[in-house]
Amino acid sequence: MPALQPEDAILATYREHGHALVRGIPAEAIMAEMYGKYEGCSHGRGGSMHIFDSRTRFYGGSAIVGGGLPLAVGFALADKLKHRPRVTACFFGEGAVAEGEFHESLNLASLWQVPALFLCENNLYAMGTALERSEADTDLCEKARSYRIAARSVDGMDVMAVMEATAQAAAEVRAGGGPQFIEFRTYRFRAHSMFDPELYRSKAEVEQWKKRCPIRAFTTRLQVEGLLDEARLAAIEADVAAEITRAVAFAEAATWEPVENLTRDVYTARAA
Length: 272
Prior knowledge:
Elements: E1 9-11, H1 17-23, H2 27-35, H3 68-81, E2 88-93, H4 100-112, E3 116-122, H5 131-134, H6 140-145, E4 150-155, H7 159-177, E5 180-185, H8 203-210, H9 214-224, H10 230-253
């Protein structure tokens, strides 16, 4: 996210909370949205799956797997036609690669040479299906290259590798180099939801991946390089805890949307 510019458009998945926070949407507005309160960034209409904020050009998560891909092509095409030096970044998981939207979107993005950056977060299991059980060819970059789109794989557990690869790709797209695809090879430590029994992987595998926790690894790197000490780390963690407390309090105190607004943005008034 820091590799993108304020004028760039962003479309995400329905696990978009981290993207939204880093983009600059206030935690209070996000938490209120998750509570379904009127002070939420979508006035409580979107909930957890549809964080949206036009001010930061964060055009929402999508409850449909791969649903943001066609929209991203549209945003990028509009920028190209208007000659605006912008990038449209679209986040999605590897599960979306099996969807028709993925192939249709990459095909059109390549044909039209739109300034789109396709960012695939490959956690190996989508919602709960191993990659090799859903894809005949598990080389995701090869799928992008089949549409003549430049593609690269990055260690998604390495913060700096992700930053550098994204910054380079975004710069190339912005310079008129056409769409690009990045696969971030990462892992999901927790179950997909509270109803997920996690029968598709072993606990030993999860523990092995946890040893490569990107937050812990990056923290250690900063400490080794003398850029972070224990006092500063403790202060950062205290600030985060305080921000969460404020967000929860804000959401708890926020109001419900008035009943008279029930049909707002759903129906339009009939012309006389």
